[in-house]
Design brief:
The chain is an alpha/beta fold. Helices cover 54% and strands 8% of the residues. A five-stranded parallel beta sheet has the order 2-3-4-1-5, sandwiched between helices.
Length: 309
């Protein structure tokens, strides 16, 4: 696996750290979703587990690369929620820490990737701290986070931080065009994805774009009073809450910078804060009732525009 074009400068920095044996024991890669943070983490892990010498990228043909390709390399662990939106619990983290404390079976590095790291519940995060405080030689823990502020300050302070911004539009556009071969579709979808190339690619290769457009139509209907908040919530609760809230936030940003640019609504900023609170609640693993969550959000959304009618 190779890093993406907009990651090359960062990749060169990581390579220099490897060559000079200055790679830290823990790295926190943060930034918006849909820009390739996990891709970078996996490329780095593969590079470390590759047995070829003096190469910029993993060779793809040595024993380590072959084991990775087959999904049977014993010295890498990838930890994620069992289901989207669910928390990472303490038992998998304990098992991960135990694995990192042992000698690498292939005699090289041991690597673990946790994504998204903010999905760890409090107990899981506390269990991880011991490994961060007492790292073993030639072990690398890579935390991938869409919202690093949700991680404890203690965990953040023990990691080398890598912040990945949304890539330059021209670079993202060129990459998407090369991958898809459809320039006209790329321009439209990259804008809708707020410049996030992997999110845009997902829209082009799945039905997520249609789902998002349908959801935005639902938002507009509530705003216009064409559908009640309760009926809208009945439809929205069937979708992934975290993803839908992100769609809602993007819709508001687009609305505020286009149609409402010359006539801002102060209440819109307050509603944006409520969306952020709702998202934090969902990703914290509190398991809110989706129907009730969306009923409250849509009622608040309707009130934003109530005085303008």
């Amino acid at each position: 696996m190779l890093p993406l074009p907009w990651q090359e400068t960062l990749w060169d920095t990581l390579n220099t750290s490897i060559e000079q044996e200055r790679l830290p024991h823990a790295i926190l890669i943060s930034g918006p979703s849909g820009i390739g943070k996990v891709r970078l983490a996996k490329a780095l892990a593969q590079h470390l587990l590759c047995s070829a010498e003096m190469t910029k990228y993993a060779c793809g043909s040595c024993k380590g690369c072959q084991l990775l390709a087959a999904g049977s390399h014993a010295d890498i662990t990838y930890l994620e929620p069992e289901e989207p939106g669910k928390p990472i619990k303490i038992d998998p983290v304990r098992a991960l820490c135990e694995s990192l404390s042992k000698t690498a079976q292939q005699g090289g590095w041991k690597v673990a990737i946790i994504a998204p790291a903010e999905a760890m519940n409090i107990n899981a995060a506390n269990a991880l701290l011991k490994n961060l405080e007492e790292p073993q030689p030639k072990t690398l823990l890579i935390l991938v986070s869409h919202r690093p502020s949700l991680l404890s300050a203690t965990i953040r302070s023990r990691c080398q931080k890598i912040n990945m911004p949304i890539p330059d539009t021209a670079v993202a556009n060129q990459w998407l065009t090369e991958v898809t071969g459809d320039q006209s579709a790329v321009d439209k979808v990259l804008f809708l994805a707020a410049g996030k190339p992997l999110l845009a690619l997902d829209y082009l290769q799945s039905d997520n774009l249609q789902q998002r457009q349908s959801f935005e139509e639902l938002i507009a209907q509530v705003r216009a009073g064409d559908i009640s908040p309760l009926d809208a919530a009945q439809q929205a609760q069937k979708l992934d809450s975290t993803e839908s809230i992100d769609w809602f936030s993007s819709y508001i940003h687009r609305l505020a910078t286009t149609d409402l640019a010359d006539q801002p609504i102060p209440a819109l900023f307050g509603f944006s804060d409520k969306l952020l609170q709702a998202r934090n609640w969902v990703v914290s693993g509190n398991n809110p009732n989706p129907q009730l969550l969306w009923e409250e959000l849509f009622m608040d959304w309707l009130m934003v525009f109530a005085k303008r009618r």
